[in-house]
Amino acid sequence: MRVTDTTMTDTVLSAIWQAQDSEQTALEQLSTGKRVNRPSDDPAAAAEDVLNLSQQAQVDQYTQSTSSLNGLFQTADSALGSAITALNQAVSLGTEAASGTLSASDRQTLAASIQSSLDQVVQLANTSYQGSYIFGGTAVTSAPFSTGASGVTYNGNDGVNQATIADGLSIQTNVPGSQLFMQPGSDVMGSLEQLITAVQSGDSTATSNATTAVSNALSYLSAQQTFYGNAMNEVNNEQTTLNQETTNLQSQENTLVGVDMAQAATEVTQAQTDDQAVLEAAAKVLPMTLLNYLAPGS
Amino acid sequence: MAGLTTALSIATQSLMVQQEALQVATNNIANANTPGYSRQVLDMEENPPVQQGSLWFGTGVNAGQVESIRDQMLQLSIYDGTQQQGNAQAQSTALQQVEAQFSDPTQGIGSDLTAFFNSINQLSTDPTSIPLRQGILTAANNLANDFHSTVAQLDTIQSNLNLNVTQSVSQINQLTTQIAALNGQIAPLQQLGQDAGTLEDQRDELIQQLSQLTNVQVIQSDQGETLATGNGTALVVGTQSFALTTAADAGGMQHVFAQGTDITSTLTGGQLGGVLAVRDQSIPSMLSDLDGLASGLATNFNTAHLKGYDLNGNQGQDFFAPVSGTGAAANFQVSITDPNLIAASSDGSSGSDGNLANLLAVANQKLPSGATPIDDYSNLVFNVGNWSSQAQSQASATQTSLQQLNNQRASVSGVSIDEETTNLIRYQNAYQAAARVISTIDTLTTDLFNITTTG
After folding, report:
1. How far does A263 lie from chain B, in Å, by closest CA?
2. Which residues of chain A are within 8 Å of residue B96 when distances are taken between CB atoms?
3. Is the pTM of this model over 0.90?
4. Mind listing the pLDDT tens digit for each residue in A182-231?
5. Residues A211, A214, A216, A219, CA torsion sign
6. What is the ipTM, given to two decimal places?
7. Facing residues of B229 across strands?
8. How far is the alpha carbon of A129 from chain B, nearest alpha carbon, in Å?
């Protein structure tokens, strides 16, 4: 083939461009740590990456939600624990009142102590977390329990909420106060009121019956408390699962769009060597014409 | 004496011819880097011999014509390669600008979508929280803003391409006028059987520039070369050129007209074809995908939102402004500004989060496109990447093949400095030899005169 100077310069130029293009790509991959820096680098991987990052963000959100819920569950659990302590105390006081011959003033003192247990339980049943009452069902803006002339009244509702803590996994986030504190047959508030009346009246049979009722309500509330214990276990377990999922997703992301740093570094060196080789060849070839070998003036 | 005189005349003519050859070589060297230049050679011809007695004697050399060395078929392939390259390059450039809008997966519509649904999930941990409700509105507004800015950026690229259409058409018109004028100069020379060399080079170069802009059919005719667009619309016939015109449609997009006919959709080659493909197909397709995503999301989310109750116990209203069809993404907007109006409750009680599950379900609900919102966006990213990647491969492949064609052309028509230097030496030697002949004849003649005067 007849090779002319334009062919030579064009070929050299396009070889230089090609070498520098490879060098730039290798450098970009090394500096960003990513093989896919724009959708056209690998359209399928870029599209997958959109989904992967969305899942990662979702898992982060689930983790955040489980942390918030954990705080809520702890508050509820500890409130119920305190209520149970107060009930235990009421049971001892009731047992004491039922046991023997007490003066009217002693009974009044005991009744007053039981009344203060009741007040404590009502206060605990009105516990709020981040400004919301947690035992009012889904009526969370006003105190669910109030004390009036007719005793303790529940102003909340029976609503329960669910929160999603993983794809397809919801968890109940509350137990309504009516179920916890005013369940017919295991009525915490009612049995305490009943006990106060019995102690005040001095009827030891009634006092004994009422104490049994409070004791039953106590067992019932302890059983209900396990809901929150279980819920805390569930969110804690879920957090472990979510952490694992994040690790998996990050590793998938790396496979999709990441670059092997060692390999990228080698590629940069390789591209630089290629570029240098092209430039050296160009420097040798380009200035060469017959004129170099003809003595000047001959 | 007759022999010496003939020899003298042969040598003189040789001097002149070698000088002409030197001039051609010089011109080749001068134009070694001129685009479109075809190297020239001087056709040297023997003079007719004369008979002297029984012998035939040669009578020297004369210069025939200066001929340009070219391969017309190769030239046609170059036009075709040039238009393909122009097309792919234009698409590649435009689509790389487009894909920049979708390059960072941690920003933009995709991540906004996820952040929006995440903010709803967060509310389920504390349904009456005003900061968390505000968080949903902020996330929704971020999504709306990114819909707007993505559409605006695509619109900007589209209108730049639109400007490019007008510019390309005006360049085409300039080139066709120049080509028609050259046709007028070349045809008479060719009819006389002369090589129009330089003029043809100029015309070839102009047609190549024209091919860069659009695909051109070249037809040889008596009146010179006839040029037409890919679908046969005449651009140049002999010495007449036909200007293309542009006129904007209702949407402001420039259409190309040839003698009153809209030929926009038939312009598929060259830079103009590439620009039109991105302006009229790729970008509208992306905008339509974004519109589908925006309107589908707004519709599905509103439906779910209407099922619930807000913090005041009232039934939910439209969360997003209802949008549909063309412009849905550009008009995508959050209709509520009061965080109390987010309908999280399923029963009217303020603390209920029962409707959040319905709102969250929208993330997995299929849009009219058949995909969930995030899948729909992911598909869009794939399409954008795929178009850009194809255009880039095409640009690089056509560049390589055009480079090869140009190398072939350079091999046939290009100037080799080595060759011309060799020729210079060759003609210089011949010139020196002819000069020596003259000096020898001069000596011989002087000798002859001396003999005749002294003897």
Report:
1. 23
2. 38, 40
3. no
4. 999 899 999 999 999 999 988 889 999 999 999 999 999 999 999 999 99
5. negative
6. 0.86
7. B216
8. 9
